[in-house]
Design brief:
The structure holds 2 protein chains of 2 kinds.
Chain A (H helix, E strand, L loop, with lengths): L6 H32 L3 H33 L2 H8 L4 H13 L12 H15 L1 H23 L4 H24 L2 E7 L16 E9 L2 H23 L9 H19 L2 H4 L9 E6 L1
Antiparallel strand pairs in A: 1-2, 2-3
Helix pairs in contact in A: 1-3, 2-3, 2-9, 4-5, 8-9
Chain B lengths: L1 H34 L5 H41 L2 H15 L7 H30 L6 H4 L3 H5 L1 H34 L6 H21 L4
Helix pairs in contact in B: 1-2, 2-3, 2-4, 3-4, 7-8
Classes of the chains: A mainly alpha, B mainly alpha.
Amino acid sequence: MDFKESPFMYAIALFVVAFVISQSVFFLVKSLKKAKELGIPKETLKTTMVSSAVFTVAPAISILATVIVLANALGIVLPWIRLTVIGNLAYETTAAQTALDFWGESLKHSVGDTQQFATIAWAMTLGSIAPLILLPFLCKKLQKKIGATVNKSEKSKKFGDAISAAAFIGIVMAFVSREIYSYTVQKTNVLDAAGNSIVNEAGQILKVKTITGSAGLMSILVLVCAIVFMLILDIICKKFKLTKLEPFAMPIAMFAAMGMAVLFTYVLPENLVNHTWFEIGTELAKIYE
Amino acid sequence: MQKDYFDRVHKWGILWNIGALLTLLCIPVAICSYLNAWPEIDALLSIMPKLMGLYWLTAIVEVITYVPLLGPGGAYLSFVTGNITNLKLPCGLKAMEQAKVRANTEEGEVISTIAISISAITTTVIIAVGVLAFGATGSLQLLTEGTLAPAFEYVLPALFGALAAGYILKHWKVMIAPFVVGVLFLAFVDPTMGAGTLMFITIVAAVIGVLILNKANKL
């Protein structure tokens, strides 16, 4: 049996799952209790919970899809553990590749050496724990400062609301902008004919910077579809006073836009579907590092 | 009253935080003990400065950015469960907007934490069920290669498009400045800039926009 997918590895994963769920349930119960004290209507709490669960389904499935990106090299259990606590694909891939660089290996091959696997597990963990060390020191201070500002701006509620909305809108617009014009790059090892990394006399590994993703016609179309669906649903909810549907408008708009992505892919000409501002796969630079 | 509740949240958060830290560190220890294989010190000394230089600095920025937006309860939970920018943050923001509450008020804190805890439970269960049910058979490949693959490839524009639309009717004037500045920055300065860094610029643009609109009485 592959050591990367042994029952012991699964046991570790299930322990981590149990921890994450216990912490979430703890905060959920405490918050619900406080909400009751604050007099927040039961209906608001119910819709918050149900709409958050529905909203989460599609992104969670896309996270599940990223587990398999790393499964080829690391087996399915370690990526599962890592994407359950703290992790995200970009970080885990970088951490695993940086670790494998030490031996001149690549993520394209399955890791068969137990010591390399153990080193990757340590690298992924030690590189990602910083927020958990910082939070106990910074969280309270930050919350007190922001809390004081928020309460001060109560004097001018409309202005305070606008500043608060501005921060939210600023975040959302950062993501929206990236769907309109951006690209992502990834550094990978250049392999020789035998599939080994190329190392120079100074021990540096030859890396190639490649465009791995880019905004383009499809990302803009899906973005516009999501906006249009959401606006239509919002108008329908308000016009027909469908208050129960309102919390689900956002997940419905999101699913509908994702459905349109599938439709566009099969209906539009291939050159339009694949049209991106930057050609995916383009090699930008080769460097020893 | 407010002080009491937030203080309690910090106490719980720190305790769970320590628990998470111990759990996380136990993972490689358990793997090493089981495999009877420990990492080479030389390897770790070579690998860790590269990773820590990159990710520990990012962590400082992330903590400073997300705590004010998610509130302490949401932040303690989000930093343990991960996937903040693509899931926990939009989920928390959406819930607070729908419930018409503001972050860092008691009501905002409660709603944000409820939304993020439900989101964390849902994600954890979906990933666990997906891996256990389909991982061994290799059928998870369908998510990246099958008919529905484009749906998951474009989950981010679908998510943030729907989220942005929620603000269009109420705050369309406030959206102009961060949108224009964000796109121009990507087009003329750095198209590879990640959303985590770009949001600093777009938040500043949005706040300046609000100040100008407020001065002109057009808010």
